[in-house]
Amino acid sequence: MSATPAWASAERMQQADEAHKAGRYAEAARLYEEAVQHFQSTLGEKAHDTLLARNRLALTYGDLGRYADQLKLAEQVLKDRTEHSGPDSPHTITAMGNLGVAYFNSGRIDELVTTNEKVLALRTKAQGERDPLTVQAMGNLAQAYNSAGRHREAAALDERVYRQSAEIQGERHPDTLRAMNNLASTYGRLGRNADRLALNERLLGLVREVLGERHPNTLVVMNNLALTYGLLGRGEEQLALTEKTLALRREVLGERHPETLLTQGNMGLALAQLDRLEEAIALDRQALQVYVEVLGERHPQTLNSRNNVENSAFKLGRFGEYLEHTRRTLQLRREVLGEKHPSTLFSMGNLGYALTRSGQLDEALEVSLRTLELRQEALGGLHPDTVVSLGNLAVTYQELGRTRDAAALSARYVAGAEHLRAQPGLSAETRRSLFETYARYYRSFSRLQAQSGDVAEGFRLAELGKARTLLESMAVQRAARAGVLPPAEQEALEDLGRRIAALEQSVARARSPEARQNFEVSRNELARQHDALQARLREQFPKFAQLGDVRLVGAAELKGLVPEGAVAVNYVHAADRLDAFVVEPSGVLHWVPLGQVPGLADAVDIWRRAHASGRPAAAAFPTGGPQPVRHADGSFKLLGAGVVPPVGTTRVQDFAEVGTWLSQRLLAPLAVHLQGRAHWIVSPDGPLAQLPFEALPYGDTRQPAVASAEIHYTQSLSVFAASRDLQSRYRSIEGRQDLFAMGNAQYEDQRSPGDRVSSSQERLRGLRLRDASQLRDLDGLWPDLPGTEAEVKSVAALFAGSSSVHLGEAATEQRLQALNAQGELRRYRYLLLAAHGYLSPDQPSLSSVVLGLQQRTPEADGYVTAAEWPAYDLRSELTVLSACDSGFGKVVGGEGVMGLPFALFVAGNVNTLLTLWPVDDRATAEFVAAFFARVKSGATASQSLAATKREFSRHRRWSHPAYWAAFVLVGAG
Prior knowledge:
By secondary structure, the chain is of the alpha/beta class. The protein folds into six domains: 106 residues, Serine Threonine Protein Phosphatase 5, Tetratricopeptide repeat, CATH 1.25.40; 103 residues, Serine Threonine Protein Phosphatase 5, Tetratricopeptide repeat, CATH 1.25.40; 86 residues, Alpha Horseshoe (Serine Threonine Protein Phosphatase 5, Tetratricopeptide repeat); 121 residues, no CATH class; 156 residues; 232 residues, Rossmann fold. Helices cover 58% and strands 10% of the residues. A hairpin with a 4-residue loop joins strand 8 and strand 9.
């Protein structure tokens, strides 16, 4: 018996509903169209079933990105449904709600809000507040308020919708998942990115389970989580997840679907954040062209795409193009969204900054003041956009010469930035990356306060902007190890710490973006639990709270911080300007403006390369490679291979002039403060962290600075104070042994031994690893270092009977992990790791000490990364990384230099001796032995290092700076 047309229509409707639920929108649209045709031919155009099918078809057109078709059909369905069922019918209300969806997709914001407010009122009256359809209407109204920039009203509704939907339908119901996603997005618009991250991560796991990886709604959540990573400064994670989402959206939705274009734009944002600007602008321009074709020039999503293109142009230095396009986008956003919409204000802020950079300062000031006023009103003083406006306005005031007006903004800026940074539930790495986006203004405000006469406040801001995560990690460690908690609470805290550390290692070793993300989700959830537990313990146990407080050194605490005969120099670098805060033992604080220092990073890089090879300096820049040139103003530039030198530049031939230039700008202005000081404590900033000051020419004799002063480094003076406290506590520990040492690790590359300065190191410089799963790609670049066995044995002989030596097959990460688990490593005053080292130029957490690479396990691959060191429990006063390129690491805004010394501090180490470039095996063995001999005799680490450097600078064989200048000491000295 054949089916009647009515049965055929019903069957197609059911098939269409199933296809739509599964996210197969093209198939669903075809089936709905067939059902509409069947119903119309048998029941008529305005029959109930016909209207039901047409209504669902309109929604599906929206899912397919066919917004014009959706709007036209939704308007007609509402008109027909009102005539057929009456204005108050539940079916009419449903049609009205679907028209609201069409208004949203078409960017018709005013009509969207009005329609959704009416739908909610009708649903509440007809069905009550807790009916699922009423709750859904409430969520749609929240989305409308967000589109109109009314984020606070949206948040109140979204929180209510999520709570009620979870109570009524359960957490795994699609409506609840949608509500959770909307709430997460609203939190992001309010600047509550820690809350947004928590919801996004939890939600992604749920939608993958409920809907599957390829469902369009799952892809919405993936896209939003990637955006959250970007807002938190997690560029690599953002890029990896956006790449995956874009590929899936292209497969599932097609190249020209608006949501695909949205992810393409987000891909451009991720690339721009990682300074891959040419790729970013190509993607952005392609997306904008298709947006205009699909949605039209005035659609809000098109305007967002225009904004992406503008920002990439700005980063590429195309300021004229940026200014012109920003004016046009601002005009369109005002017309479409209104003057006070956050997106309009975003364009207004961009225009103010563009005008400042273009020198049109009067107009820039007017625009920037208006932007700040409106953002304060619409978003509040703690919103990220408002904080950015404060920083940009300060720049404009500064360019106008209104220093005091600029400085007066610092308190509001810092309050906002500190609030955003302190959001609970962020891992240390995420807190660090988030703060990087704000730290540059701390430095600018530091200078402005000092210029205005408040040197103490300038110093405070400089300290507040440096090494914050390290200070916090050290404070947490201090409190946790103090023994002031009851045993049960102590064990709970330590257990969470161990689990977080284990997950940190899993994150670092993940072999795919998906695995890394899963580990990060688990780690972040434990971080939130850890924060909550810490907050409770701080409230219950005042002593624990006191020990866990970050002790930021202010001007009033400087007296006695610097030892007699010493001087501390705290450099602050921002926007090519350099300042120094100089601290005397008496606590007297000086501010010394060092002025504009263009090309500082290039000058440091040129100087390091020229001195690192041990060969004639010109050999460091062979033909065909990067070439150093000097500009007419005296500054330096390291041109990429094949780049034609600009007119007016000359190739650098005498590299001594680079050292002289650096010394004149860094040391000469401080001569009155440095004179007669035998000990310098240097807190570098920016590129200065890669510079061994000891080797710079200094004074009338132009001898290396180490000839007249011992020099060591610290991330900030607050970290220096914390390190000294730690050092003092360690010296009171009884029964410790002296030396733990590893050397002559067995590597898989069995080539003949050679100097540490090898072709392997040159190959390493070109590698850019994104995660620890790629560390094994470095295998084969590590020649054996048999000379390190003699090095370790000679040092161990100094501490006979009080040392533990692990050589050859015993110099492995497995052994290190086992000894740490047994509590053995905490028993030693000094650690010596004579092995290869890898310095990651892009990912500080991947910088590694490379131990044995034979007989490895998944948990111990031989690369002991900076991400893994905090899981170790150390009580060491000194760790010596006698390794190639073990040096500081990447310069991270707001945190100074990240990498191995940072990680070792968190593990409990006080001083770290490491190298800034590869050093010859034999020279290193002699250097380390001579250094430890002085330590054994009772000299401090900084005294021992200075004396050893002086000895080597006069050495018959090792006098070239390549053999001794690379060694630097970070810590308490």
